[in-house]
Amino acid sequence: MARPGAKQAYIDIEIDAGGNITSEVHGVLGPGCEGLADWVKDLGVVTVDRKTRDWHREPDQEQSVRPTARTGR
Amino acid sequence: MSKYMEVQTELKDAATFETALTAVCQDNRLVVEKGPGLVAYGYSKQTVDADFVIRKRQLGAYGDLAFCKTPDGIKVIVDDLDQRGQEIVRQVKQRYARTRIEKLARARGLEVQEVEAEGGAIRLRLVVPDNDRQNRTHVRRGR
């Protein structure tokens, strides 16, 4: 789920003329987006389920106010 | 964007399906017979028991368009060559998907916004209304 201070979280849904659905989660970084849109899977057969670059980013990476030390550099 | 999914809609919820079918039939000026215990007639006198039937004479089709309730959802019976029947099925699936998404989204406290549609598609934006409030209450119901 979205955290305070994060960008506005939303899901864009498109239902084509045949009733097939595509969904895109925006504004949520990291695995937190899973819970936001997983219920869409219950509407039918999932043919594509893809994590994008934002899924692998940590929520705090966008906020420069926390100078967290990072390892592996 | 952090996650992308494609889902082929299945008609699982009988109540939502019936609402969608009724609306599509009204839009297309079709009469739908509602069972149970109806008999649908296919090409060359084949028959099948059905719960909802649109007769072939309305569709100019080879067979009736029929829908049967099953434990796994709604089973669709339409002749492969009946283009009009298949178009009605597509419309029902689209209406069903929209109705179901709006209902499930609102139950999860998401605000449903309609975005400009194009090419026969429906576009919705489901917005988390207030991140702070969402975190405190988890789910807001009944909107």
Describe this entry's structure for a reader:
The complex is a heterodimer of chains A (73) and B (143). With 73 residues, chain A is mainly beta. Chain A has one domain (10-62). Helix content of chain A is 7%, strand content 27%. Chain A has one helix spanning 33-37, and strands at residues 10-15, 21-26, 44-51. Chain A has a two-stranded antiparallel sheet with strand order 1-2. The longest helix of chain A has 5 residues, at 33-37. Chain A is elongated. The two termini of chain A are 29 Å apart. Chain B has 143 residues and is of the alpha+beta class. Chain B is built from four helices and seven strands. In chain B, the strands form two sheets. In chain B, strands 2-3-4-5 form a four-stranded antiparallel sheet. A two-stranded antiparallel ribbon of chain B has the order 6-7. In chain B, helix 1 packs across helix 3 (83-107). Chain B is elongated. The two termini of chain B are 26 Å apart. Classes of the chains: A mainly beta (73), B alpha+beta (143). The interface between A and B is large, with 50 and 41 residues.
What's this, in brief?
The complex is a heterodimer of chains A (73) and B (143). Chain A is mainly β and 73 residues long.
Can you tag this structure with a few keywords?
heterodimer; A: mainly beta; two-stranded antiparallel sheet; 3 strands; 7% helix; disordered C terminus; B: alpha+beta; TATA-Binding Protein; 4-stranded antiparallel β-sheet; two-stranded antiparallel ribbon; 4 helices; 7 strands
The low-confidence parts of chain B are 132-143
- Indicate the structural class of chain B: alpha+beta
Distance between the termini of chain B: 26 Å
* Text of the CATH class of the largest domain in chain B: Alpha Beta
Element layout with pairings:
The complex is a heterodimer of chains A (73) and B (143).
Chain A: E1 10-15, E2 21-26, H1 33-37, E3 44-51
Antiparallel strand pairs in A: 1-2
Chain B: E1 3-9, H1 14-27, E2 33-41, E3 47-54, H2 56-59, E4 65-70, E5 73-77, H3 83-107, E6 111-115, E7 122-127, H4 131-137
Antiparallel strand pairs in B: 2-3, 3-4, 4-5, 6-7
